[in-house]
Hints:
Chain A has 13 helices and 12 strands. The first copy, chain A, is α/β, with parallel strands linked by helices. Chain A has a single domain (4-307), classed as TIM Barrel (Alpha-Beta Barrel), CATH 3.20.20.70.
Amino acid sequence: MKNFADRLNSEIEARGTAAIVGIDPRFELLPMPLRRKFDGARGGSLRGLVSAIRTFSQEIIDIVAPHVAAVKPQIAFFEMYGWIGLQAYAEVVRYARKAGLIVIGDVKRGDIGSTALAYATGHLGEIPVAGHLAEMWMEDAVTVNPYLGSDSIEPFLVQVRERGKGIFVLVRTSNPSGAEIQDLEAVGKPIYLHVAELVRRWGADSIGEQGFSSVGAVVGATCPEEARRIRAALPEAMFLVPGYGAQGATAEDLRGAIRDDGRGVVVNSSRGIIFAHRRKPYMDEFGETRWQEAVEAALKDMILDLSTIYSGGV
Amino acid sequence: MKNFADRLNSEIEARGTAAIVGIDPRFELLPMPLRRKFDGARGGSLRGLVSAIRTFSQEIIDIVAPHVAAVKPQIAFFEMYGWIGLQAYAEVVRYARKAGLIVIGDVKRGDIGSTALAYATGHLGEIPVAGHLAEMWMEDAVTVNPYLGSDSIEPFLVQVRERGKGIFVLVRTSNPSGAEIQDLEAVGKPIYLHVAELVRRWGADSIGEQGFSSVGAVVGATCPEEARRIRAALPEAMFLVPGYGAQGATAEDLRGAIRDDGRGVVVNSSRGIIFAHRRKPYMDEFGETRWQEAVEAALKDMILDLSTIYSGGV
């Protein structure tokens, strides 16, 4: 069983980039050919809608798999369509793993100990069914919310230790109002640094051969100064960095999150890549009908942009 | 369209109790007759397992519906069985609503604005499908996590305002490590009071005719002193109070959460009621075969216990 952080870093090295792609499929933003196909073929049913977002997600996976180490499907965009949507989420996770990608489920779960155990077992563990153990959601790692403290995280740490899984704890999020609670100063430092200390403690016994812990941190690219302070407090954590691209952050904003040796991050872009057909210059060059080429071009541009500041550790 | 807090308070008055029942079905704790039936009939398949927890949950609803205003299904215990488990969650929510119960989905979701919109629309709102609007999960209210701040809550507030839905924001949780982040002192007061202030602001424009807001707070019964301070800061919020019973809190511990007029709370018990057949005195009196009677007896005892400190506002 390989340590998650080792696995993630090996894949980053193999692809030569820290870029990962967020899968946030929204029906109303899908390229017209896909919307039309599923609206028409199934009379605009819920199953047709969900087929469209599943097909779109799987095509995205086909396009990005040769280029990136991981994808980050956002479960909310499947959960909004009820259990039928979540059936598609499960299929997308499996599809991505078969394509050789590491899957980081962006689920942001967090609950008290006995309930957290149910989430951790369902997403990262195995459930006893008919005398054998079965995996349910099958992500390699998930994002978790720290507000309920250590006993809400411990069941996930069991999966980290025993099954080579990973977690990314929300430390400083990329959204405008992330500061409201996370930046409050408590006992001499902001809440996000208290959380960072907890993350360091939670991850202390899952540090792999490459010196990184499988307990990582979500640190928004939209707050570079905070990222610098969190990196100082958490030298061994892998940072999952959202906010690049559509949320406004640039490669330059990532410097604080990256270690001096050029390692330690995965940089996520969701809308900026998967809906590239809707923005310049890809919109003009490819349009909706060649949306797949728009996705690939946008991803290649992101990888090139990141290469200016990220050594990839190689 | 009736305000959620008004609806909840009317039901509390009608039943004469603030008790509600948490539906946390765990296969290994189910009464033997149910486990045997579904293990045998379906060869211990995943669908058999999920049928057992769905049937159990629906029987619980039948038993408690005459006595309480609401049930609180915990989605994690369904989600751990993948999308098949979540199909059962959806069925349980519908079943409870048909039984005349208010359903508080204990989902503890929380994400950045555009993603929070997906959660809020899926759980409390309507999705456009084939030219009409369809409800997906159909809860009356859900629990939410405040760590990401206002833009993560706003999409839920839209459903509160436009569709008479409710939310309960985690303020001070009942678990042992809830204090780690929530009790940190920041700018002269603990984090949970900062969150309470946000909750008051978020709920200011959804106060109903009975003087309560549809934006409530989750405040653990296991922390009575904190509950008193939160109540002082949040006079108009309905408190969803977990921790009574199996987690160790008593009726006396609830005093701080209840307003001087005897109103303002719903008190949840999950394991203490639904698995009453596993604990004294119900275990001895009813055993596993008469588990339904154990549930009813435990619930009646809880209601009696709460009546000593809770006026129900009548």
